[in-house]
Amino acid sequence: MDKIALSVKNLNKYFYEPQTFHVLKDLSFEVKKGEFMAMTGKSGSGKSTLLYILSTMDTSYEGTLSINGELLTGRPQNQLAAFRNEHIGFVFQFHYLLPEFSAIDNVMLPALKLAKRPVEEIREKALENLKLLGIGDQALKAANKLSGGQQQRVAIARALINEPTIIMGDEPTGNLDSKNTQIVFDIFREIAQERGQTIIAVTHDDDFANNCDRILELMDGKLVHP
Description:
alpha/beta; 6-stranded mixed sheet
């Protein structure tokens, strides 16, 4: 069980407005530590809804969610927020950087919020992550002065700062050209292989998905390939 990063059992999700709609239908699956998994499916298949539940931000569902062997279903919001900050990193289609802050200051934010390490140690770790992503020389530049590909790499460095168990991506290469898409893919691959961190990425990019370790495909709220 210690090799399992995330476990979902008998997950069901309903929307009740304007009428009852069964969005996710009795999903059960596990994701291993160090696994790089793509989540695919047509628009409306339920993949973004599922990612929102896996991230612990949506708690209105039936079934159970465990991360690192810890049952998270039923926990209060303040506990879930603390768990997210420490154990889950997020990379979205849009980078959500603070534009006037420098790259390194953006990367440091989740660790400053967690407050488990001295500020100088956090700064050193942030710089190390930027170097890992090939943009250490951009550390002091304001986020709004960086290219789109550089901004997305800063967002990944930020997602890594607390050394989370799982990095969740929602179309993380959706706004990038093919060259930067490949760079981001290679970074995720290295993180999974070298650091043993789990990557779960929602994507519409078939090439991206086909090169992952596994594809979890949703169709009409059901798993096609568990």
